Amino acid sequence: MNIPAPAPETLGFGVTKRTTHLADGRELIYFDDPGSELGEDRGVDARALDPRPATATMRRDVLTGDWISVAAARQNRAFLPPAELDPLAPQTPTNPSEIPSRYDVAVFENRSPSFGPALREAYGDAPAADDPPRGLADLDAPGLGRTRTSVGRCEVVCFSPEHAGSFGTQTPTRARTVIEAWADRTAALSALPGIEQVFPFENRGEAIGVTLAHPHGQIYSYPYLTPRTQRLLAAIDREGPELFARILTFEQDSERVLLRGEHWTAFVPFAARWPLEVHLMPHRHVADLAGTTADERDELAPLYLRLLRGIDALYDSPTPYIAAWHQAPVHVGRDAVRLRLELTSPRRAADKLKFLAGSEAAMGAWIGDVPPETAAERLREAISTVPEVTL
């Protein structure tokens, strides 16, 4: 598929953005480190690929109001392939992977997405959305058997061309490039029609369900407000629009603080659910990563790396986690919902995991295994063994 590539674009921190397309029309974006040794030319994806799958369908759970995306194409995705067949590594003659060139950071549309491809009018070669949502009021309407097309977009964010690792194993410069990519994609995806919320995240470890060892994360762009965000908006209505400013002050005055910089504070929250749970919050109100300043991104890269490396220093083996960047919805609540990272891990001891059984899974009633203050003390001790990280 021959789609003209736009000219390279220079982003913050000296990161260069280069946009191209894969053989089936999916978008591929390279984010080159400042001073990258990679050349301007990038390989062409010459694979013979099947057509993109039909956009998934959402079904509404009338008991909760939640929308469930049924994406059968995900059953065919790669599962723990050997390093020589890593689908996120640069292509070789023996590995027809998703990325045709050597790269620093690469972002591309997921081949088996839970949401999307995007609406046809937003991106010309995407399959048609037969029955897209008609706004938030439509999604909230009552009725049994309600369905809509799962419009949206799912992207894969490759932190490195190496086969193994995670965000925490990257250099400060590479971490800063990834943050620039997150911010760029947040802005671009928020501008797509039909998108209500943009969610960057990293799953790390087989205990979390990771199916690829390659250091990577994802970005989901939802056509609705997620259940977690709807509950948050209700909490803001109950507690007041300055809720996040109050939370930050409350936590900064506690014994649960782990790291504190000029622009960010990391802490174990007062009512932590998981054995390991850390929130990382900016000191000023900012709705999403796209709204952060260069200074905030510059501090975030080394601070986040030290936090992740401290978590890994707790035990003799890497800790599984979900690192979830909660951002304000695209169209509502932006003056009240503050950007923050929520990192959670089921690991409650070196050889024990917390499983969500009857009370948590069936009733949503959580029982904490570790007092948050105890978890914070252990994490501070582990972080203190990690060398300072500088950009």
From TrEMBL:
Keyword Metal-binding in annotation: yes
Entry protein name: Galactose-1-phosphate uridylyltransferase
Family that this chain belongs to: Belongs to the galactose-1-phosphate uridylyltransferase type 1 family.
EC number: 2.7.7.12
Regions of compositional bias (Low complexity) in chain numbering: 124-142
Active site: H216 (tele-ump-histidine intermediate)
Catalytic activity: alpha-D-galactose 1-phosphate + UDP-alpha-D-glucose = alpha-D-glucose 1-phosphate + UDP-alpha-D-galactose
First-level EC class: transferase
Keywords from the UniProt entry: Carbohydrate metabolism, Galactose metabolism, Metal-binding, Nucleotidyltransferase, Transferase, Zinc
Pathway(s) this gene product operates in, as recorded in its UniProt entry: Carbohydrate metabolism; galactose metabolism
GO biological process, one term: galactose catabolic process via UDP-galactose, Leloir pathway
Region (Disordered): 124-143
Domain Galactose-1-phosphate uridyl transferase C-terminal: 252-381
Signal peptide: none
Domain Galactose-1-phosphate uridyl transferase N-terminal: start-end pairs: 100-225
Any GO MF annotation of the entry: UDP-glucose:hexose-1-phosphate uridylyltransferase activity
One GO cellular component term noted in the UniProt record for this chain: cytoplasm
Cofactor requirements of the protein: Zn(2+)
